[in-house]
Structure formats: structure tokens, C-alpha cells
Amino acid sequence: MILISACLAGLNVRYNGTSSLDERIQKLVLENKAITICPELMGGFSTPREPAEIVGGDGEDVLDGKATVVEMSGRNVTELYLKGAYATLQKALEVGATRVVLKEYSPSCGSVMVHNGEFNGTKLVGAGVTTALLKRNNIAVFSEETISELLIAHK
Fold first, then answer.
1. Rounded-to-integer distance, Cα 93 and Cα 74, Å
2. Average pLDDT, the chain
3. What is the pLDDT of residues 93-102, one digit of tens each?
């Protein structure tokens, strides 16, 4: 089974109440090859919610206690991001998922790049909190930008 970011399957769960529909990803869900998850909602957030970014590093650093996740207003929401990451890991283990497709650039789901923590649109190389935790547990993480690799491997 594959876990998919709910926003990529067309559900309006992003911080601003929108989706990031990718029809290739939605097709996996419709064919019962994947199930949707949203680490932020699993962590206790609602939709819409204030934008958040990792300050002081990336998801690896958050897991190691060296960085935080902060909303634009300055509220520290690290614990909610950690809660969502661990809930996602638990779900992956429950369904036997060895591959996950998550939304790039998200402080939770980014697999290659995340925002730099300054809320100015600048991105840096690094993983989101959920991605970092999944990778530490030997679960392959893809994004909508690298989904072709997964689709080729899945045939």
C-alpha cells in the first residue's frame, strides 16, 4: 500500500484550505492502490490554518531538537508537527506502506526542499518533519515532483 498526502489527491486540507491535486496521484487512490493521510491534521491542526515553516534547519533538525516549527505569527507548533509525523509513521506501519508520496516544500511533507523559516518564499535543501521520520524508519518518500520514479517502480 502507498500513503498519499491528502492534498495531492484533491482534498482541501492545505493550510489555506485548498488542494494540490495531481491526477496521477489521485488515480492511485481511486484504484485502491493508495490511501490518503494528512500529517498536519493528524497532528491536531484544522483547515485552514496559519502558514508555518521550520526555523533553524529542516525536519531532521526538528527530530533532533535543534530546530522548531513556527507559525507566521511566531507561535511554536513543533509538538503538533511531531505528533503528526509519529501518527503518520504509525499509519504507514499499520497498513504496511513502504512508499509514501508527500507534498513538496511543506514543513511536514517536503522530501527534497522546505521553506527557510523566514516566510519570504525562499527554499532550502532539506526534508520536512514527517519525511525525516519516515526515512529514518526505512520508508521511501516521494513527492509530486518525483512521482514518476514511484510509478515506474510500481508497475
1. 33
2. 95
3. 999 998 999 9
